[in-house]
Amino acid sequence: MTKLKQALSALPLALALVGNASASKAPEDILDELIAKTKNDPYLTQSPQNRMMMPDNPAYEWAAEGEKLFKQPRGPKNASLEKCDFGKGPGVLKGAYVELPRYFADTGRVMDFESRLVHCMKTLQGFTDNDPQIKVRHGEKSDIMKITTYVAMQSNGMPWNPPMNHPLEKAMRDAGRELFFRRAGPMDFNCATCHLNPPGTRIRASVLPNVKIGEEWTKAVSWPAWRVGHEAVRSSQHRVLECLWQMRYPNIMPDSDVHIAIISFWTDAARGQPAILPDMKR
Amino acid sequence: MLHKDPIAHAVAAALLTLFAAGCTATGPQKPEDAKPAQAAPAKPDYTKMTPRELAEYLVFQSGSYDLAQPTQEGTTGRDRLTQDEVQKVCTEVARSGKDIDDKTAERINKLSMATIKYPEGGIKLGDWRKGRDIAWSGFGFRTAHNVDDHSRGAPGGNCYNCHQIGPDRTGGTIGPSLTGYGKIRGSSPEMLKYTYEVIYNPHAYFACTQMPRSGAKGLLTQQQILDVMAYLFDPESPVNK
Question: Into how many domains does chain B fold?
C-alpha cells in the first residue's frame, strides 16, 4: 500500500520532468524510436515485459525522493545542492547529465556524475567520507542513488555529448579505451569479451550490447536504470562494479579514476544517441 | 626476428611502460591500497602519458582497485590484474582491431600447449551428471564486493555462459554450440585428448580466444575437466540425446 502511495505521489513529478525534457518524450518513446530505427534490434527488443513496465518505472519514486534530498538544506553546513555545478553552471540540471564526465577546473580532475555529486555534498553541505550520505552508494537507502536518478532524468532524450575540449578529457577517454581491451584476471576477460560481438550474441539468455552499435550502446549506458532482478535503481558505477565482479577482478573504489576512464570511453561511444533516463533493465 | 614482430614490439613497449610508470610512484603500495580513491598520492600529469601508460597507471597506482584484496587462490587483487604473456599479447591484438598474425598465433599456440598437464591415469571420462553441474555453474573466484566462498562448494566452469550444450538449458552464443558434441565427433583417443587440451588451455589451438584457460589457470581440477568431458561425450548425457 505504501508502495502504491509512493508511486502515486511520484507521478506528478515524473510527469513534470517528462514535460520538461527536450521533446517531451518519455524514456519508452525514445526506446521505441531506436527499435524502429534499427528494425527490431535484438538487444533493444529482448524484454517486451520491461518495455511494458517503463511508464511505471519505480525509478520515478526514487527520483521524487531524490528531488526532496536535492532541495533540502542538509549536512553540517545546512545547505541544499541547488548551487551544485554539474558542468553547465551552478544549479543547471537540464542537459548536465549527458555532458559528463567532464573536466572541472575547481578540482583539476575529470569527474563523472557521481564523483561530482559527492564533491558538492562535501563542499556545499559539509558531509565527509564517513557519513552514510556519502558512504552508502547503492540500494534504496542510498541518497546518492536517488539524487542521481532525479538529476539524470532531466537529460532524458538528449544526445550523449561528453565534452572533449580539455586534454584531460581526451586522456581519460583514451585510457578508458585501453582499459576496455585490457585482458586480465583468472579468466582473461576484458570488456570486449561481452561488448564487441555480433548483434544478438547472448550470455546465457541475455542479449549483449555492442559498443560499436550506437543504438544498442545508448541503452546499455543509460544509467540510472531500474534493475528488475535487483529490485533497485542502479548507477553507472554500479554497472562497472558488477562487470568487474563477473570478470573476477578485485574490488574497485567509488569515484576512482578507473571508473571515470571507463565511463568516459563508454559515454563517448554513445555520442549523439539519445539517453533513455531512467531506463529499465533485466 | 623478434623485433620485426609488431606485437612483440608492442608488448616490449608495454613492459617498458609498466617499468617507467613504476618509477614515478612514491613506492610500492601495500595496505593503503584499500583506501578510497581520493586518498591516493599526488597525481602525475595524465596528459603527459600515452593512453597505455595512463591505463597501466590507473590500474596499479591511482588507488582505483583494492590491490591488496585476498583471492581464493591465495594471491591478491594485484596479481589478478597483472597480465601474463598471453594476456599482454592478446590485449594488443584486441586493441589493434585486426586478426592475430600467423607468427604470433603460432607462438601463443606453442607456449600454451606447454602449460597442459595430463591426468596420471590417462584421459578417462568422468561422471556426466557432475560435469553438467560444473558446466552450469558460474560460481567461483568472484571477489570485489561479494566474495565467493569456496568452502561452500567447488567453483563451476561457466561453460553455459558462452555455449549452448544440452538441449535442456539456454546457453550463450559467444562460443559455438556444443550440442551433440560426442555424437557428432565420436570419442576416439585423439578426440578426447584434443577436447581435454581445449578445455585445459584453448590458446593451444585458438590463439587469443575469448575462452578461459580453465586448467592452466587452476579454475577447474583435472577431475572436473574429465567430468565436463563426460557431459560432452557420454552417450547417456543429454548433450548427445
Answer: 2
**Domain extent for A126:** 2-281
For A37-63, the pLDDT digits (tens) are 999 999 999 999 999 999 999 999 999
Residue B173 within any structural domain of the chain:
yes
Dist CA A57 CA B60 (whole Å)? 39
A39 touches chain B (CB under 8 A): no
Mark whether B68 and B136 lie in a shared domain.
Answer: no
One-letter amino acid for residue A231 of the chain: E
The overall average pLDDT reported for chain B is: 88
pLDDT of residue B42: 73
Overall average pLDDT of the B169-191 stretch: 97
User: Which of A177, A181, A251 is opposite residue B145, by nearest beta carbon?
Assistant: A251
Complex-level ipTM: 0.91
Please identify, among B38, B62, B82, the residue that sits at the C-terminal boundary of a domain: B82
CB contact burial B183-198 (16+ within 10 A = b; e otherwise): eeeebeeeebeebbbb
Rg (CA), chain A: 18
Nearest CA in chain B to A198: B174
In B, residues 25-84, which contact A (CB 8 Å cutoff)?
35-38, 46-47, 49, 51-52, 54-55, 58-59, 62-67, 69, 71, 73, 76-78, 80-83
Q: Are A38 and A47 in contact (CB under 8 A)?
A: no
φ, ψ of residue A59 to 5 degrees: the values are -60, -25
Which residue, among B154, B146, B211, B144, has the nearest Cα to B178 in the 3D structure?
B211
